[in-house]
Amino acid sequence: MNIYDIAKEAGVSITTVSRVLNNKENISKKTKDKVEYILKKYNYTPNAIARGLVSKSMKSIGVLTIDITDVHHANTAYIIEREFNKLGYSVILCNTSGKTTESINYIKMLSERNIDGIILMGSVFNDDDIKSAISTYAKNIPIVSINAFLNIENTYSILVDDSFGITLCVDHLVERGHSDIVYVKDLDTYSANQKKDGFIIGMNKHGLTIDDNSIMTVEKGLEGGYEAVEKFMKVNKKFSAIIFGEDITAVGAIKKLRELGLDVPKDVAVTGFNNSIFTECCYPELTSVDNKVEITSSLSVKLLNDVMENKNVSSSIMIRPDLVIRKST
């Protein structure tokens, strides 16, 4: 028994059966009761693909992330999945490992599955090859990008002012009497570069000196934090405060500083970014930029859903982060 058989026995169109299945309005009670009786009679369970062909919607959303094991990305994906579940959509999660080729393959795959919409998590997707793939394979699919502006038709953005977040760190450290402030960049993405720019803006704002050793580049993670401290010391860079672009790297630095017998924050103050669970799992607890993961995740769902419902929306929404001050500063 399929939807066509149900429609034939009820004497209605398959569109009417679909409207009953999806609890749509503008159906008479008599017709609705008749269709529901036949559905119950045959214990009918709608086939998702068949229903999608009729309604022209698979009720599914694709979500591309770089690394689902990352706490920040995991939290974002969780909120997105839960919010879309409430709206009756299933979510296909695609883990790209930050690789352009995998991102392009997933975009192509999602387009072939007649997906209703796509959310891109992270500024890593602001890549020319990925944008070309979107224009080629997904030009008719609404896309919301978190923390990247793609400047492509039918794409929308939820942006966090990462640069402003880092300037908040500089302002806070200056207020605490620091002038020898350094920065650690641990990713090579649009967002990471915005954070670095925020450091430069903040330092210039307060008339503080930046030299070739004021900004160090390391790999993201605990080991990166260790390495950052070692690099600053190797070049004899004077510093009383370190700003990090990621919490986990900052935690690694705190561990290294304490191993060296330095007190945090008395000898060296440390700040992170993301306000993740790591901020409360280290000693001392880490001052960190709160980039509003709950707000950005929920807004991305609302924005994409509004687009799919043909509502008037803004092409981009900017979120201002806050600084959560803890004992590391």
Q: What's the Cα radius of gyration?
A: 25 Å
Which structural class fits the helix and strand makeup? alpha/beta
Tell me, briefly, the overall form: elongated
Summarize model confidence as the mean pLDDT: 92
| N-to-C CA distance | 67 Å
Spatial ordering of strands, largest sheet: 2-1-3-4-5-11
Count of DSSP H/I helices: 12
Task: Tell me the major beta sheet.
Answer: 6 strands, parallel
- The share of residues in extended strands comes to 15-25%
Which regions have little confidence, pLDDT < 50, spanning 5+ residues? Answer: none
Order of helices and strands: HHHHEHEHEHEEHEHEHEHEEHEE
Fraction of residues in helices? 40-55%
Total beta strands: 12
Can you describe what's shown?
The protein is an alpha/beta fold and 329 residues long. Helices cover 45% and strands 17% of the residues. Helix 6 runs parallel beside helix 7, helix 8 packs parallel to helix 9 (190-205) and helix 10 crosses helix 11. It is elongated, with a radius of gyration of 25 Å.
